[in-house]
Specification:
The chain has nine helices and twelve strands. The protein has a single domain, classed as 3-Layer(aba) Sandwich (Rossmann fold), CATH 3.40.50. The longest helix has 16 residues, at 172-187. The chain is 32% helix and 24% strand. The N and C termini lie far apart (41 Å). The radius of gyration is 18 Å and the shape is globular. The model has no long low-confidence stretch (mean pLDDT 95). Strand 9 (208-212) and strand 10 (218-222) form a beta hairpin. The structure holds adenosine-5'-triphosphate.
């Protein structure tokens, strides 16, 4: 288990004058969703929390240590990032790619062990990729590549998941499968922080929500306190109608 903490963190969005400082602890077992319109800064926020870009001010801490003090390898032993888009130009099979999730735990030139291979196979099974295991990733469809990215992160066995649109390119069945997988990861003690465009996936699967506005304003809290139609309408500049299905709110454009 690990705790990721933002302390007075202002995300550095090019050209944006200011941003509201973000201070929060992302705790084991929590499932955070970041919502906001295109260009609001969701990916930049996620990359800043991953230590891939410096914040404009403030800091990000992992188990009390500033990310800048940690080596990438130490970070990768606890934290996995699923990117929104990726270049899969390197010619590698699905299995070879999924095994990359074990690299933070291997010394340079060390071969993957049987247990590494077992973890990769389990992750491929969880994402229904076994039949594709010998295929070159470059030959896969968008949704298949997305599942490979999630299987790679799963093989990393992260305490913290930072996932940018984890359901990108996925059909309905695989969207639900991935959200269930992330839910189970949280039940087992991982912290999950993800950017989502689908309000209904966020309403159903997240227990904390962060609303990010294009001017850098943000607000966050337990999901049931954030799913206020007026706030979401202002967030997306879109009228919404709200219903209830199985006790969960469902939003459709009004
Ligand atoms: N290198 C850069 N140079 C200039 N502007 C940038 C750069 N990187 C990001 N931006 C801008 O920063 C803003 C935030 O981008 P970001 O990708 O974080 O938004 P987002 O909320 O994830 O958007 P989307 O929902 O479209 O994925 C955007 O307006 C983007 O154009």
């Amino acid at each position: 288990m690990a705790i990721l903490e933002a302390s007075n963190m202002v995300v550095d969005i090019p050209g944006r004058a200011a941003g509201q400082p973000f201070t929060a602890r992302i705790l084991p077992g929590q499932r955070w969703g970041v919502l906001g319109p295109n260009g609001a800064g969701k990916s930049t926020l996620l990359h800043t929390l991953a230590g891939l870009r410096p914040p404009r001010s403030g800091q990000v801490l992992l188990d009390g240590e500033c990310l800048t003090q940690l080596r990438r390898r130490q970070l990768a032993q606890k934290l996995a990032v699923v990117f929104q888009e990726r270049q899969d130009s390197f010619p590698a099979t699905v299995q070879e790619t999924v095994l990359i999730g074990r690299h933070p735990f291997l010394s340079p030139w060390q071969r993957e062990s049987g247990s590494d291979l077992r973890l990769a196979n389990q992750a491929m099974d969880a994402l229904s990729l076994r039949l594709l295991s010998d295929r070159l990733v470059s030959t896969l469809s968008g949704g298949e590549r997305q599942r490979v990215a999630i299987a790679t992160a799963l093989t990393q066995q992260p305490a913290i998941w930072l996932a940018d649109e984890p359901t990108n390119h996925l059909d309905l069945h695989h969207q639900v499968a991935v959200m269930e997988l992330l839910h189970r990861q949280a039940e087992q003690g991982a912290a999950v922080f993800m950017c989502l465009h689908d309000l209904n996936l966020a309403a159903r699967w997240c227990d904390h929500l962060l609303l990010l506005y294009p001017d850098g304003e943000l607000c966050f809290g337990p999901a049931d306190t954030m799913l206020v139609p007026e706030a979401l309408e202002r967030l997306y500049d879109q009228k919404l109608s709200v219903g209830q299905i199985n006790g969960a709110p469902v939003f459709v454009p009004g």
